[in-house]
């Protein structure tokens, strides 16, 4: 019995030794692989996938009539996302159109008045010529009667009659001139009034274009191909102009990764360097990319309250510099990566430039 227990203990010890040996070998391999990775690559896990996530903003206020999208739905550029009640905007448009028609009718009346006054001025001008001729003739007759009166061949009464007739003709001549000047002046006034009405028509047309824009804003469409985010609005809600209604992820632009490398890791990184990216969501699956830019300042410098080391409370902290990396590959491959995902980024050191 004692011998049996001894054989069992030896077997257990042997198995335990093998297991321990395998663990040590596995840890050694893992350690060597990790050290090799640190030796060959600059790597960081402080990195996230980013893409343009833009708000859908209402440019007109009112009640929502219909919502035409669902959460996470793919949409094409120009697809209707929601419809706002446009009746008030249509009424404003119709009022402005009526004002334009009224101003155009007023413009027609003024044009007719100008035509009438031009006819009146032409008639007055003809009367001026006729009156001028009468005054000239009457002046000659008056001069002759003055000579006859001086020679006692005409009476005082005849001379006075000629004088009165001349005065009347001169008065008619001045009256015709005044009528012509008045018609001409009134024509100028109406032309100025016509210019004011024409300017008002231009203003109303611009206002009409604005009202048409407001009507078009009541139909909110997708600005580009993309995927809708969370839906938080329903038909019947009252919204204001400028209010954010939803978010859309832009599918027309490339995705990128922002990797926050330590300042001690970026000495030899250059734009165009190849990068390998591994997403936590897809273990073992790698994505390829390239560095497209390095931030001009550290992340802390862009913070709301950047550190001020001149205050005397200085503690040296390794800063991180955002490195922007474009993800290469087909749309089907890059669609696996979603905005905000955590990723690990590896930049091979063999690319270092001297």
From TrEMBL:
Membrane-spanning residues: 12-39
PANTHER family found in the cross-reference section: MEMBRANE FUSION SUBUNIT OF EMRAB-TOLC MULTIDRUG EFFLUX PUMP (PTHR30386), TRANSPORT PROTEIN COMB (PTHR30386:SF26)
Localization: Membrane
InterPro entries named in the record: Beta-barrel_RND_2, MdtA-like_BSH, MFP
Protein's name in the database: Membrane fusion protein (Multidrug efflux system)
Highest taxon in the source lineage: Bacteria
Assigned GO CC terms: membrane
Residue ranges of every copy of the CusB-like beta-barrel domain listed in the record: 256-297
Ranges in a coiled coil: 86-120
Multidrug resistance protein MdtA-like barrel-sandwich hybrid domain segment(s): 56-249
Biological processes, Gene Ontology terms: transmembrane transport
